[in-house]
Amino acid sequence: MLHGLGDSPEGWRWLPGALNLPWLNYLLVNAPDEYYGGHSWFDYPGNIAPGIQRSRKLLFELLDDLRAKNFPADQITLGGFSQGCLMAIETGLRYPHRLAGIVGISGWVFEIENLIRDFTPVTKQQRLLATHGHFDPIIPFDKVREQIQMLKTAGLNVQWHEFPKEHAIHGEEEIAVIREFIRAGYFGKAE
Question: Residue 72: CA atoms inside 13 Å, Cβ hemisphere, count?
């Protein structure tokens, strides 16, 4: 799980208990840059591309390291919130191995036209769950919904869920959607 801007893994320690998937291992990953007492994946605002590319490289190395330690890619779900959502989507859809799934919560897609242009056969095998809030004051809902539609039109397997929330998790209702998506990635349950 990749945290949002200004947060850290501490902000997500509640997730394992909330998901209640006792067979699942969790890795709460810390972003590389300090940011006002927390951390960030890339500079914001400003020229975000160099930081995104650097963080994507670091996350590729982490995924490769996990594979080397006998955690197959197809048994890894990569998720993130806000800035972490962008990084989960950016990393997961460019990673050369099929993952169990990608979960993007309250985030957006970086340079979507370039991402779609770079789709590979592995990209189109990835599963993506994207959730967003109608009332998000930080990342506009309509823009994200449009981006998700572009990914679907490009042939990506995307589940999209809207919630009456701001820039947060919409309680058990959203957690249940995430739980079922993760379960389906491991057990092949019909979506």
Answer: 6
